[in-house]
From TrEMBL:
Cited Pfam families: Epimerase (PF01370)
Name of the protein: NAD-dependent epimerase/dehydratase family protein
Annotated ranges, domain NAD-dependent epimerase/dehydratase: 5-208
Lineage: superkingdom: Bacteria
InterPro entries documented for this protein: Epimerase_deHydtase, NAD(P)-bd_dom_sf
């Protein structure tokens, strides 16, 4: 039985902690308020993950430190740097393998499938930030100060998932209500199921081949927003979706601080976004959950 520390008890952090505990591992789940799932294998601890000394003490003796914590979306630019610095410091001091949950922002706009060997070419503030955080971690790895890896996901789907589609389109479609989405509604898009993200994080933490490089979460499907909405409506027995394309700038005028932050990421939705995960499937042995299974879970969750 190994000991692992997971930071953040959102959907992905919770899924990761439960996966490890369900496989007999000992898990310490660190959040500001000590929240998280009730499981005999999960120790919930209240701590500030930006406090490097406190975090180091909690990580001491752990095989891995898996970060699923993030500041609120509209506070990324100020909140992420101190969090990332403390996490990397704790990994350097303790020797725990550091697994970062990342995304595709650092690649910038790309025509064609995204592969892990693409250079960083961000065009947004949040993309520049994500690329810098990975560069800092990679430099520590190259210098022999830490073992680091990053697992990169696309838009989240699944129970309580936090993505623009998940908290705007999915509830409206299941309820039979009209909704706007800032995207090319017919562009194929890779989606990351929360359970598959957790599975990739755990696999990366356990595999010595994972350190010093990034991995893509195997996509649960490459459906367009319109196709995904249709699958949700069918599974829910709801009317045909009344889904319309809107401009990303409309979100900025909504008055919602977090939705306003989406505008600069509009390039992710106005063209195909396909995440190549062949290396993850081959080396880490992670397979994607069928999209139909994920859709059924979303419908059940929304109807609770």
């Amino acid at each position: 039985m190994s000991f692992h520390v997971v930071t953040g008890a959102g959907p992905t952090g919770t899924a990761t902690a439960l996966r490890l505990a369900g496989e007999g591992e000992r898990v310490r789940l660190v959040t500001r308020r000590g929240t998280g799932p009730g499981h005999p294998g999960v120790e919930r601890v209240a701590a500030d993950a930006t406090d490097a000394d406190a975090l180091t003490a909690l990580v001491e003796g752990a095989a891995s430190l898996i970060n699923c914590a993030a500041p609120p979306y509209h506070h990324w630019l100020t909140g992420f740097p101190p969090l990332a610095a403390a996490l990397l410091t704790a990994a350097e001091r303790t020797g725990a393998g550091y697994v970062m949950l990342g995304n595709v922002y650092g690649y910038g706009p790309v025509d064609g499938p995204l592969t892990e060997d693409l250079p960083a070419a961000p065009t947004s503030r949040k993309g520049t930030l994500r690329a810098a955080l990975w560069a800092d971690a990679l430099a520590a790895h190259a210098a022999g100060r830490a073992r680091v890896t990053e697992v990169r996901a696309s838009d989240f789907l699944g129970r309580a998932a936090t993505s623009l589609f998940a908290f705007t389109v999915a509830p409206a479609v299941v309820a039979g209500e009209p909704v706007g989405y800032p995207a090319d509604l017919d562009a194929p898009h890779s989606w990351s199921y929360v359970g598959d993200v957790a599975g990739t994080l755990v696999a990366a933490a356990r595999n010595e081949a994972s350190w010093g490089r990034a991995w893509h979460v195997p996509s649960t499907g490459e459906a367009s927003a319109r196709e995904l909405a249709g699958l949700l409506a069918t599974a829910a027995g709801a009317p045909e979706p009344a889904l319309t394309a809107i401009a990303a700038a409309d979100l900025a005028r909504s008055g919602d601080e977090m939705l306003a932050e989406v505008e600069e990421m509009g390039y992710l939705y106005d063209r195909p976004l396909l995440l190549d995960s062949a290396v993850t499937r081959e080396v880490l042995g992670v397979a994607a959950t069928p999209l139909e299974t994920v859709v059924e879970e979303i419908v059940r969750d929304l109807r609770v």
